[in-house]
Amino acid sequence: MTYFKCVTCKARLYSAASPNSLVRDLCPGCGAMLEPVGELAELVGYRSIELRDDPAKPQAGHGVVIDRFAEVLAGRRARSAQAALDAERWLDDGGSFNGPAAASAAVLATIRTQAKAET
User: Fold this and answer.
1) How far are the Cα atoms of 53, 106, 114 from residue 118, in angstroms, in the given order?
2) In what order do the strands lie in the sheet with 2-6?
3) How many structural domains are present in the chain?
4) Per-residue pLDDT averaged across 76-104, rounded?
5) How many CB atoms lie within 10 A of CB 119?
6) Beta-carbon neighbour count of residue 58 at 10 Å?
7) What phi, psi does 55 have (nearest 5°)?
8) What is the pLDDT at residue 77?
9) 7 by DSSP, 3-state: which?
10) Which of 2, 24, 73, 93 is deepest in the core (most CB within 10 A)?
């Protein structure tokens, strides 16, 4: 008998399967990695959970983590692309500020700041 636990949600799982088959399995409750149990005393107070039906199908908790990671990564890539575009535009201008353009941008920023403060 192989025993695993999820420390995050205090759950335990046992299986007749080989220990290597569940090594990278995730908790169906929270999506955290299941940890192998060294001694049964570690499981005292943990609730029992069941394995999912289809081990090839990703779990909901795991899918949520992957989706959130993909969103964060896409946001980071978008900000990086925008920064690269801004740097390219700055270099195209000769790497210096245009006096009238910088002054008008400063005025617009001041107007926006004042409008936000009033609301």
Assistant:
1) 57, 19, 6
2) 35-36, 2-6, 11-15, 47-48
3) 2
4) 77
5) 4
6) 13
7) -65, -20
8) 93
9) coil
10) 2
Give CA separation, 107 vs 71, 74, 96, in Å.
Answer: 34, 32, 19
77 Cα distance to chain centroid:
15
**Does 7 share its domain with 51?**
yes
E strands present in 1-119: 2-6, 11-15, 35-36, 47-48
Name the residue with tokens 């049964």.
Answer: 40
Residue 88 covered by a domain: yes
CB contact at 8 A, 32 and 7:
yes
Least Cα distance to 2 among 46, 44, 34 occurs for 34
Write out the two tokens for 21: 């088959």
Buried b or exposed e, range 98-118, using 16+ CB within 10 angstroms = eeeeeeeeeeeeeeeeeeeee
Q: Which whole number is the average pLDDT over 45-74? A: 72
Which domain range does residue 46 map to? 2-56
